[in-house]
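Problem: given the chain below (194 residues), write out its structure.
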Amino acid sequence: GAFKKVLEHFGRLDIVVNNAGVNNEKDWESTIQINLTSVIRGTYLGLEYMRKGNGGDGGVIINISSLAGLMPAAFQPVYCATKHGVIGFTRSIAVTASMENYGVRLNTICPGFVNTPILQSIDKEENMGQYYSYKDEIKNMMQFYGVMDPSIIAEGLITIIEDDTLNGEVMKITASQGIHFQQYSQTPFTSSKR
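Solution.
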């Protein structure tokens, strides 16, 4: 419904940001649904409305992951898995979009700790379940890495929206290093379809 309202009001869809995130290790199936399944669904809906071969004008889709999507997190295994999934899905669908000439770029942002309500979830046993005893370790990590204001994430978002060369990229945003990109080695093969 939201996608249809945007099209009715503006006549086109140019930008989609899938920013889903909960931290609930106890209700892990819900965490998967919110953090990963909804991002995939939002991406596919965005592609349907935006891709050039389907009457769209192209655009950009940005899926929000986390630094937990790039490293293990012993006290948040399901959250970590969902955020790894967002990165793998986005990088893969970006290659497809390029090969199929969708005219849509897809990228991922992986913020460190950001001052949003999700940070309070670590203090709740009903969210952390068996990992609740690790809450002080998470707080120590937050103190070590620092907690960022959401405005720096918005700055990274604007960069991805404005830079037409970015597709399949993973932007990391940390308090210590600011905005920078994850480096990956070149994929050893390409599709024989094109």
